[in-house]
Amino acid sequence: MAIRRSLAPYGVSDLLVQIGLWVVFGLAYEAGRGAVVHDRARAFSDSERIIDLERRTHTFFELALQHDLPSGHAIAPAFRLSYWISEFVLLVLALVYTYFRHRKTYALFRDAVLLTNSLGLLGYLFLPTAPPRLLAGYGFRNDLSGQPNPDHATGLIAFAANPYAAMPSLHVADAILIGLFLASLSHSMPIKALWLLWPCWLSYVVIASGNHFWLDVAAGAALAAISLLISSQVRRPRTPDAYGLGKSSFLSGHARRSREGGGDITLASQPTGTMREVAAAPRLVVGG
């Protein structure tokens, strides 16, 4: 019973629903991303428009940034590792952590990620954009990206991968969500700072490696902000302290030990609570 509770603290059915949701979404997303028509001519045309816009606004710095990188081989593995773990490792671990340790925060995190990536897929459909690394004629390099030339992809990789999905940058959008949520759940200031710096580092990586223009990064950041705003409004509780996040939760709530949450201290909306009762609680997990 104890093992089952630790593996499925909110019930086996809830765990299976969450796993099923992500499996279905992942398969549908990859299929949709790969099924988008690879209009090479339009993708390169859109990239050239971005370069033209950046030149006219004197913000076309991606090429200079890439050329200023050190010539050693150490930087390329660091870029590739950061790029790949950001989506396929770190995002999964962040979702797992918030699910088991901060269930209510996980719900908002999950919704924001799902909405961000769904809207991003629409961007790939209506604004196919070739990444700078494919624009060799402008002087960009592809050796730092860790990705093959699209002409060399075959089989399932060729179907699932869309080489012209640069606008917006979902790597950066997801990194912003990861950084914000994990920073909000961290109690250590250095750890908070590291999580908040993570999307900054990844933005540098995707631009310097030639995977994105800075406008792709800006669009990804805007998409993350919009998705988080929409998700938070949709999930807004009927009462201010339903999630233990509102100001009234400290004024009218009292601390109780949650049997379902594995013994964490949470806030319950009870009119008899006082500030003294909350202050006396041994440990307080907000939004968990």
Please supply descriptive tags for the structure shown above.
288 residues, mainly alpha, 2 domains, 12 helices, 2 strands, globular, disordered C terminus
Overall pLDDT score: 77
The H-and-E topology, N to C, reads as HHHHHHHHHHHEEH
Low-confidence stretches: 152-159, 238-288
**Count of domain modules:** 2
Strand content: under 5%
Structural class: mainly alpha
Looking at the structure, what is the overall shape? globular
Distance between the termini: 22 Å
Q: Report on the biggest sheet.
A: 2 strands, antiparallel
Q: What is the number of helices?
A: 12
Beta strand count: 2
Looking across the biggest beta sheet, what order are the strands in? 1-2
Cα-atom Rg, whole angstroms?
A: 22 Å
Could you estimate the helical fraction of the residues in percent?
55-70%
